[in-house]
């Protein structure tokens, strides 16, 4: 039995690398970094199992979090599976109090620590089997099986949206814990590197920042932008996620009038958020959109689709359009391009609203409470 003041040993797996640097990363990597570093500050001993081949600068420790690399077969569809398997095996015999799985696919291996009586937690970042790249074949079956393993073996399942919580209750009769992602307050920075690299200046562009995948609605965004009467540029910032063919199609559709930056991090990422005229997330499918939280934390005027995962985040502090409706998206973007006063009003309210609503410290506290609940 663990006392309230004893140090819990936590293993985390399912992410690519922590901290994320040159390796293209998404929401999972952000959550793992924000959560693990705070848990260390709260007195836990945390180890993150990274994929081999994802550069984190050769670090063995980051902000008190221990970092270990596991073998990874670097082929489409196999990298996540193999790294999660080896991470699970090592974590099972690592003397941890809790093994925390991130995303549905890695949960496929949860039966291994369960066999040895280990406590497991799972964070479901979204219904991954619904993503276009996993909708058929072995990948879809693997992810769906991982979901079922989590339902069967996880001591606690954390979900990031009410919609996913309803899904688990209706589909499996499984109770889950709703702990949405957090966000940190970010100071705006001046446009320097983005001006040198892409010719971008403050308020001169409409920004999308995220993974280039079908469910993000980029086809609607490009089509809507083509019909805009504006001198604002469209910037699509982010890398593909096993979706190179889709990325190429979007670039062909966009032509020469859209700037594709590729994966961005560090100063360039900060500058892009800080100096956008509008940030837009036209998604058909989301888990808990961290990029939207980040965009609002930088004080952006945001335009999002009306899916619950976006609309519930922004409430009345952003502009919402009908999902997959190119005409409605174009109309909303044109209205904002023509009305800078409205844009500035949304910008003034965004930061305080989102940082008050979502706190990483609160996320870590609630997660630690779950760990201790299962280790009494």
Oligomer: single chain
Distance between the termini: 5 Å
Q: How many beta-strand elements? A: 14
Give the uncertain stretches in residue-range form: none
Radius of gyration: 21 Å
> Treating each run of at least 4 consecutive H or I residues as one helix, how many helices?
14
Strand content: 15-25%
Can I get a quick summary?
The chain is of the alpha/beta class.
Layout of secondary structure:
Blueprint: E1 9-13, H1 27-41, E2 45-51, E3 61-62, E4 65-70, H2 79-92, E5 98-102, H3 111-115, E6 119-124, H4 137-153, E7 156-159, H5 162-172, E8 177-178, H6 193-198, E9 205-209, H7 218-226, E10 233-237, H8 244-254, E11 258-262, H9 266-275, E12 278-281, H10 290-297, E13 302-305, H11 308-314, E14 319-321, H12 326-338, H13 340-357, H14 360-373
Parallel strand pairs: 1-2, 1-5, 2-4, 5-6, 6-7, 7-8, 9-10, 9-12, 10-11, 12-13, 13-14
Antiparallel strand pairs: 3-4
Provide a descriptive summary of the structure in words:
It is built from 14 helices and 14 strands. The protein is of the alpha/beta class. Strands 3-4-2-1-5-6-7-8 form an eight-stranded mixed sheet, sandwiched between helices. The chain has a six-stranded parallel sheet with strand order 11-10-9-12-13-14, with helices on both faces. The model has no long low-confidence stretch (mean pLDDT 91).
């Amino acid at each position: 039995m663990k006392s309230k003041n004893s140090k819990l040993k936590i293993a985390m797996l399912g992410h690519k690398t922590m901290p994320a640097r040159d390796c293209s990363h998404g929401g999972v990597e952000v959550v793992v970094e924000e959560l693990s570093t705070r848990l260390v500050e709260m007195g836990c001993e945390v180890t993150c199992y990274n994929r081999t081949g994802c550069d984190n600068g050769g670090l063995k420790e980051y902000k008190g979090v221990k970092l270990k690399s596991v073998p990874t077969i670097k082929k489409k569809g196999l990298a996540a599976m193999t790294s999660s398997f080896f991470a699970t095996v090592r974590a099972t015999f690592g003397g941890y109090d809790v093994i925390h799985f991130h995303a549905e696919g890695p949960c496929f291996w949860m039966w291994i620590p369960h066999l040895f009586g280990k406590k497991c937690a799972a964070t479901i970042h979204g219904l991954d089997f619904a993503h276009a790249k996993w909708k058929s074949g072995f990948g879809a079956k693997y992810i769906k099986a991982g979901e079922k393993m989590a339902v069967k073996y996880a001591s606690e399942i954390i979900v990031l949206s009410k919609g996913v919580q309803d899904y688990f209750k209706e589909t499996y009769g499984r109770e889950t814990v709703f702990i949405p992602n957090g966000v940190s307050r970010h100071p705006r920075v001046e446009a320097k590197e983005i001006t040198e690299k892409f010719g971008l200046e403050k308020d001169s562009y409409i920004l999308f920042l995220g993974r280039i995948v079908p469910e993000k609605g980029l086809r609607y965004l490009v089509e809507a932008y083509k019909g805009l009467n504006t001198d604002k540029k469209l910037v699509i910032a982010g890398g593909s996620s096993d979706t190179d063919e889709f990325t190429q199609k979007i670039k062909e559709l966009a032509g020469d009038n859209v700037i594709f930056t590729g994966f961005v991090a560090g100063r360039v990422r900060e500058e892009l958020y800080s100096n956008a005229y509008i940030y837009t997330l036209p998604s058909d499918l989301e888990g808990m959109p961290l990029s939207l939280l980040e965009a609002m934390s930088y004080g952006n005027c945001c335009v999002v689709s009306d899916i619950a995962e976006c609309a519930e985040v922004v409430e009345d502090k952003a502009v919402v359009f009908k999902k997959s409706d190119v005409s409605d998206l174009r109309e909303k973007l044109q209205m904002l391009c023509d009305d800078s006063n409205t844009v500035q009003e949304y910008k003034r309210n965004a930061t305080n609203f989102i940082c008050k609503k979502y706190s990483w410290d609160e996320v870590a506290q609630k997660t630690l409470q779950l760990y201790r609940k299962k280790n009494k």
